[in-house]
Design a protein that fits this description.
alpha+beta; six-stranded antiparallel β-barrel; pyridoxamine phosphate oxidase activity (chains A, B); 5 helices; homodimer; 216 residues
Chain lengths: 216, 216
Amino acid sequence: MGTVTAPWNQLLLNALESNSHLKHSSYVQLATIGSNGRPSNRSVVFRGFHENSDNILINTDTRTRKIEELKHCPFAEICWYFTDSWEQFRINGRIDIIDGSNPDSEKLQVRTWGNIISPNCCKFHYVQIREKSWFASSPRSRLQYLGPYPGLPHLSEEPQETSVDPSAGPVSEFCLLVLDPEQVDYLNLKTNQRLMFTSTQSQIGERCWTSERINP
Amino acid sequence: MGTVTAPWNQLLLNALESNSHLKHSSYVQLATIGSNGRPSNRSVVFRGFHENSDNILINTDTRTRKIEELKHCPFAEICWYFTDSWEQFRINGRIDIIDGSNPDSEKLQVRTWGNIISPNCCKFHYVQIREKSWFASSPRSRLQYLGPYPGLPHLSEEPQETSVDPSAGPVSEFCLLVLDPEQVDYLNLKTNQRLMFTSTQSQIGERCWTSERINP
């Protein structure tokens, strides 16, 4: 995991800024590989970068099919098209699933209270981030995780939760996805410029990025 | 290949209609499986349905990576998010690649002139559709196919074609993708309604669709 921002990061921040008046500018399409070996593709919401890194945060429900798929094959590609600036980012990388079952969560609490934790100590740190993401979600979003099992037949008789204790921490269905980008393919349809950013990882886990202009 | 429109088709036509004021409403994200076994995802343009069917048409360049990927694994999932009506269609199916190398193209010409061709005679018919799609593209779009090899390093010295004979047929780089949907997952974020459309194919190639309301 890199702790210094990558060369494509500023392009993405600029695109987010210039498209920020559009609610859907944070919607991205996440492709994974289905258990049947076929591609799977759905919209998810970009929840920001993991602090001091290029790692992309996404909230989801542990009961959705993408979790099963990512456990089977952790690789994913995000396609992010900005409808106002006509820019596309194809972000390919590996996804970590941070759910409540993280065996280190107890250890973490002690470590957090004792302030021993380091930002590079990912798994420990992510448990905190999961909690932060939960509290950053709107009460309405949080309620979704208490709803009926996604993808199962809809039974209108099922009782629905109508509120969630605002001070309560994340429910077990709430889960954080952390995408660690390895390659970014950037295309600007206004200038017809395309840039390919490719990374390699050093033995101590630092990413080194190179970029090349390629034909669109 | 179905020749009667599927039950999800009207939902999609409605979404296209209610979002038609947005240029990007015809942009969809197409996920395939890369040669390295990882997911691949990019925006492509919906070019309409193949007449009298639910088959989705997409133009592309034979030199792009998706062609190599689809030859290796013909399955794909389109994620189509309509930013104004808040509707998402996840369309999963198999893709046929119709390029100029189709061995039946000569036969086709004779058959077309003789009017023997039937709309169900897919491969023959698609060669015609490829030609139709070519002529339906703008001169600027057609010019792209004469440009330098997509994805290769950009060399500004490369000579660029500046015009294309308007009456000339499709160049060999022009290629038509035909997606035959097998499953459609529809989600309406305004009503929170989600419908799953699943098809089975009869021995004579007719699709039979069932639909079910499922939890979002």
